[in-house]
Amino acid sequence: MKKQQKKLRIGILFGGKSGEHEISLRSAASILQAIDRKKYDVVPLGITKTGRWLHNVEAENLLCGSDSKLLTGSSTTQEMNIHGAAAGTHSAGLDVVFPVLHGTFGEDGTIQGLFELADIAYVGSGVLGSSAGMDKDAMKRVFFATGLPMTPHVTLLRSEWKADPKKSTRAIEKKLTYPVFVKPANLGSSVGISKVKSRKDLQAALALAASFDRKIVIEQGVGGPGVKPRELEVAVLGNDNPEASIVGEIVPAKEFYDYEAKYELNGADESVSIIPAKLTAAESKKIRAMAIEAFRACDCSGLARVDFLMAPATKTKGGKTKPAEILLNEINTMPGFTSISMYPKLWAATGISYPKLIDKLIQLALERHKEKQQTHFSR
Questions:
Q1: What is the C-alpha to C-alpha distance for residues 12 and 185, in angstroms, rounded to an integer?
Q2: Any idea what the Cα angle at residue 284 is, between residues 280 and 286, rounded to 5°?
Q3: For residue 358, what are the CA distances in angstroms to 22, 333, 376?
Q4: DSSP helix/strand/coil, 44
Q5: Do residues 111 and 137 touch, judged by C-beta distance below 8 A?
Q6: pLDDT by residue, tens only, the chain of 379 residues
Q7: Phi, psi (degrees; rounded to nearest 5) at 198
Q8: Is 186 helix (H, G, I), strand (E, B) or coil?
């Protein structure tokens, strides 16, 4: 009689202190619904907005948003301390942790460092890949060193802007022309991002971005005034030999793909995804190759979604046609993971279903952890 293989025990970690807390809950709920329970024992692990770690029933209550005691610090809450959250997962028998955490304290290398110290296998990029992918300024420096095409940008520190707003404005206008996009360097889901068409709106946009991060990135709008570039996305999967999905396109319901356009508009007002994007074979091949190059440049592993902007072809004064311009926008090392998010949708269209995608990510986590065991950390 064939011996039954032991189930892997998977911790699904969600919530967190970032501005993307609610998106994390949606992603985790989709994973918990789709994961193959015949293969895995699943343990829900939650982090409240105040940073408290929860498990079992309380974690599920956080996921459902059904227990106000989680926000008031009730003594009945099944809370874990940091030691129990990391090293204690071994005593809980967890084989892999899937940190479905978006944004600050989850996607920026912090939680990954905790798992590395505790020697726990986990889904996604390591400390370097996560932190480089999170910080838009550091990311752009890496992409520039790799020779990947990007839109021009300026980086300011919050302290620099507060000390001399006029000097900051001059620095931006010296290098960039309106419209520009003002972003907090370390955040996702388009939180804190503004499109600025003239100087009169610049200070309000800088103030909004500065409320979310000490570092502000200001990017040149692609294509110039009145031009709406195409927003293209590619899903990447793998470790040392990553693969790229087919290319998809987002048609935002608003002027650009901000938080409201991503998550809050429904029905006729909802943003539209086109998979596959209508591109030439050469354009698609180029974008997919750039996505893998960006993934490797940031030393990513497991998964990432790579976003591009494409300015349309234009006629020059001489009557010639200037070809469409493809620019790398950013990489997202823990993209939205609901069943309707672009990352799983792109892989589904490429031939990997949502449950199979979860399987592959868990196997990639185990593969990476096994590979780590070949490294000596002392003499």
A1: 27
A2: 115
A3: 21, 15, 30
A4: strand
A5: no
A6: 455 678 999 999 999 988 889 999 999 999 999 999 999 999 999 999 999 999 888 898 898 875 444 443 443 344 454 445 554 454 457 999 999 999 889 999 999 999 999 999 999 999 999 999 999 999 999 999 999 999 999 999 999 999 999 999 999 999 999 999 999 998 765 778 999 999 999 999 999 999 999 999 999 999 877 788 999 999 999 999 999 999 999 997 656 544 444 444 454 456 799 999 999 999 999 999 999 999 999 999 999 999 999 998 777 777 777 788 999 999 999 999 998 899 999 999 999 999 999 999 999 999 999 999 988 888 8
A7: -155, 170
A8: strand
Distance set, CA 179 to CA 172, 202, 218, 222 (Å): 11, 10, 10, 9
CA–CA gap between residue 36 and residue 363 (Å, rounded): 14
Torsion angle in degrees (nearest 10) through CA of 160, 163, 168, 171:
-70
134, two tokens: 């999170």
The position carrying tokens 């940190």 is 99
Contacts of residue 187, defined as CB under 8 A and 6 or more positions apart, other chains included, come to: 18, 19, 20, 103, 104, 212, 213
Determine the 3-state secondary structure of 211 from DSSP: coil
